[in-house]
């Protein structure tokens, strides 16, 4: 049994259709050629490879689960395996694709006017235009309904004021989907780069997601025309529905990160010798490897099950919380355990394990923290809301 097969001990991928299998293989090959040889350097220098964006467009993964306007129209499982293979390389790469497809293109596709779709979606699918999603603010994170960013009418125009924080792709984005409070409730606005009063500042000194751009958005009397608002949704339902799309990608993506950590630990344990034999021969190491493999395969099964529910149009937000809670938590545990198997080498960037572990700390927090998803499930089970 090869280490690659050991990562899929239950043969979960047997359930993939031909097209989904092709997507997985194509993305895996792309990542092997374009990302793996460079990722360590990008991570250490703290840069996102902007030049890769048109390549991702050609690969067909940007907004791939959407239909029309240049999008690939893949199944949910197809989108999932793409996220998995991207995050097997680095969570920052999957974050770029999640934000572009699920958080920026999805709201335009779902709630935008025909004109807005025509203007933005084909270029975003091709990787010629980048989008970002501004919901979180300096004082509004887990409780996004407490946002302060506002949009008021001035004649036919809208005028936006506020700040958004921790925004993936913010400094790269040609268009920001900004959620703001209006007299009618929260609404989404398309803010093109270069609009007077709209500036971005990249956040540095990150110990996690270093190969990803994370920025602050500043909106200072930003005047937008009437048609900058997304006409199709009012209220928190808008941003929350986008987050459900992106969380689905995370449920799959982290399986890739965990698989890389597990495979690295397994192959290391087979060759590293102490006390005259491979450390894989020690029972305590075997227990770690088995626990990692069991959780990895369970996470893969869960991702697949949720993918099938999504393709059947039956996936609920609580089930997505279930997947995000379990799979991120277990991926992080796998990464940390893999780190111990590698001993001192585990802290070196020569191996991918600590990079994944550090990235997964962000994944544990963004798109709803572990605690918030626990409370969502607590509410689903008890009918009692612990967080409002
Ligand atoms: P807080 O909400 O202040 O939470 C702090 C701690 O308190 C957490 O452990 C939390 O679980 C806990 N807590 C809060 N409320 C409760 C409660 N009721 N019960 C129990 N515990 C609670 N946001 C965007 O809008 N767009 C993006 O593109 C984006 N990208 C990101 C990229 C990165 C790398 C990171 C790190 C964050 C990103 N975020 C983005 C922001 C992210 O969504 C928020 O960080 C997240 O929602 C948590 O908010 P917070 O950091 O303000 O933490």
From TrEMBL:
EC number(s) stated in the UniProt entry for this protein: 1.3.8.6
Domain named Acyl-CoA dehydrogenase/oxidase C-terminal: residues: 235-380
Acyl-CoA oxidase/dehydrogenase middle domain boundaries: 132-222
Pathway where it operates: Amino-acid metabolism; lysine degradation; Amino-acid metabolism; tryptophan metabolism
Pfam families linked to this entry: Acyl-CoA_dh_1, Acyl-CoA_dh_M, Acyl-CoA_dh_N
Gene3D superfamilies: Acyl-CoA dehydrogenase/oxidase, N-terminal domain, Butyryl-CoA Dehydrogenase, subunit A, domain 2, Butyryl-CoA Dehydrogenase, subunit A, domain 3
Acyl-CoA dehydrogenase/oxidase N-terminal domain span: 18-128
Catalytic reaction(s) noted: glutaryl-CoA + oxidized [electron-transfer flavoprotein] + 2 H(+) = (2E)-butenoyl-CoA + reduced [electron-transfer flavoprotein] + CO2
Cofactor(s) needed: FAD
Keywords per UniProt: FAD, Flavoprotein, Oxidoreductase, Transit peptide
Similarity comment: family membership: Belongs to the acyl-CoA dehydrogenase family.
Official protein name in the record: glutaryl-CoA dehydrogenase (ETF)
């Amino acid at each position: 049994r090869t280490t690659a097969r050991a990562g899929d001990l239950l043969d979960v991928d047997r359930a993939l259709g031909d097209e989904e299998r092709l997507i997985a293989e194509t993305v895996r090959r792309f990542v092997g050629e374009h990302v793996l040889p460079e990722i360590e350097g990008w991570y250490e220098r703290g840069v996102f490879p902007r030049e890769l964006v048109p390549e991702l467009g050609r690969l067909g993964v940007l907004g791939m689960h959407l239909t029309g306007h240049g999008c690939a129209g893949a199944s949910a499982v197809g989108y999932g395996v793409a996220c998995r293979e991207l995050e097997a390389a680095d969570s920052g790469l999957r974050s770029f694709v999640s934000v572009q497809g699920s958080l920026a293109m999805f709201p335009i596709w779902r709630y935008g006017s025909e004109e807005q779709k025509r203007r933005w979606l084909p270029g975003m699918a091709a990787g010629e235009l980048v989008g970002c999603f501004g919901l979180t603010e300096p004082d509004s994170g887990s409780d996004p309904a407490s946002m302060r960013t506002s949009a008021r009418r001035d004649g036919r125009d809208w005028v936006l004021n506020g700040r958004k924080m921790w925004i993936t792709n913010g400094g790269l984005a040609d268009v920001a989907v900004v959620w703001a409070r209006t007299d009618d409730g929260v609404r989404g606005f398309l803010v093109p780069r270069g609009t007077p009063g709209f500036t971005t500042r990249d956040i540095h000194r990150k110990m996690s997601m270093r190969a990803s751009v994370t920025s602050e958005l500043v909106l200072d009397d930003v005047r937008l025309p009437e048609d900058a608002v997304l006409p199709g949704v009012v209220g928190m339902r808008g941003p929350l529905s986008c987050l459900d799309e992106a969380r689905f990608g995370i449920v799959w993506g982290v399986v890739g990160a965990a698989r890389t950590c597990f495979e690295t630990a397994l192959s290391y344990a087979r060759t590293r010798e102490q006390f005259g034999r491979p450390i894989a021969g020690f029972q305590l190491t075997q227990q770690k490897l088995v626990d990692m493999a069991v959780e990895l395969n369970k996470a893969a099964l869960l991702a697949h099950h949720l993918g099938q529910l999504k393709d059947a149009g039956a996936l609920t937000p609580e089930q997505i919380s279930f997947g995000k809670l379990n799979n991120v938590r277990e991926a992080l545990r796998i990464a940390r355990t893999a780190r111990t198997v590698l001993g001192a080498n585990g802290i070196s960037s020569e191996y991918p394990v600590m990079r994944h572990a550090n990235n997964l700390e962000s994944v544990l927090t963004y798109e709803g923290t572990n605690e918030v998803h626990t409370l969502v499930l607590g509410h689903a089970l008890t009918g009692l809301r612990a967080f409002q």
